[in-house]
Design goal:
CATH topology of one domain: DNA polymerase, domain 1
Largest sheet: 7 strands, mixed
Helix content: 40-55%
Order of helices and strands: EHEHEEHHHHHEHHEHEH
Structural class: alpha/beta
């Protein structure tokens, strides 16, 4: 097998994945990937462990992060690649978002109790395991208690945007997210644009804020979506990235590790965009 496949969108137990950073690296090595990016939600805590686990192998572990942005544009996610985990601005932003995630999760647990579905906060923390508590952990707690038959049902009926237990999150605007990624020396990429429902005119606006790439190759993007995004990349000199959005070897969230085609040359393009 030619060692050229890459996966640039992966989650671990540092956020809402089920494998530790070390287990992610082990699975990626089994898949014979040339490079991966660990892009946990609002935390950098898994990067050092993943890079240490890959030491001595030929596989590169790119330091990354996925940062949420919510506002007039809707619920958007941005990926940062080749970031410096020790940059104060980014650490400050991510720390505030992690605290807000905890407060938000507590509010949703309180609302679920009003709906006669009490959860133990300790169970949510146990399922989170890492630093970044999110709705998937509440969904898993609901599933464990037998209140729902799947995590999808938990989102659709209770904790999705229109659900009775939904609570809004801390809002960072796209310019703030892009600025924080740049301050950390990283390249800023809009994650799964069409999966998020973003409009093309807004993508063009983000380019003026310093957006450097689009996640073109994504499990839920159709061939038509991919072509539209590739055309945008060509028109505005953006980097076309991609990844599986891997969370677990099972379940519907994301795709299997390494299963999504991503052009390997985008790794070098991201490295250059980050000035490395």
């Amino acid at each position: 097998m030619q060692r050229s496949r890459v996966d640039l969108h992966i989650h671990s137990t540092a956020s809402d994945g089920v494998l530790t950073p070390e287990e992610v690296v082990s699975l990626a090595l089994e898949q014979d990937l040339a490079a991966i990016a660990l892009t946990d939600h609002d935390t950098l805590s898994g990067i050092a462990a993943a890079q240490a686990a890959a030491a001595g192998s030929e596989m590169e572990v790119i330091p990354g992060v996925e940062v949420n942005s919510e506002g007039a544009w809707g619920d958007l996610h941005f990926l940062g690649f080749y970031i410096d985990p020790n940059t104060p601005l980014l650490q400050q932003q991510l720390g505030a978002m992690r605290l807000a995630r905890v407060e938000r999760a507590r509010r949703m647990v309180q609302e679920l109790a009003k709906l006669d579905m009490p959860l133990d906060w300790e169970d949510v923390q146990r399922l989170a395991a890492g630093q970044s508590i999110g709705r998937p952990h509440i969904a898993r707690a609901l599933l464990e208690r037998g209140y729902v038959s799947s995590t999808d049902e938990a989102f659709i009926r209770y904790i999705g945007r229109n659900g009775p237990a939904y609570a809004p999150r801390l809002r960072l605007t796209p310019p703030e997210v892009i600025e924080a990624i740049h301050a950390a020396g990283g390249a800023a990429v809009l994650a799964h644009p069409f999966h998020s429902g973003i409009q093309i005119e807004d993508i063009v606006r983000f380019i003026s804020y310093g957006l450097q790439g689009l996640e073109v190759y994504y499990p839920n993007h159709s061939p038509e979506d991919v072509q539209i995004l590739l055309d945008l990349c060509g028109r505005y000199d953006l980097i076309a990235t991609g990844g599986s959005d891997f969370h677990a070897p099972w379940g519907k969230e994301g795709a299997p590790l390494g299963s999504v085609y991503v052009p390997a040359e985008c790794v070098e393009q991201l490295r250059q965009a980050a000035g490395q």
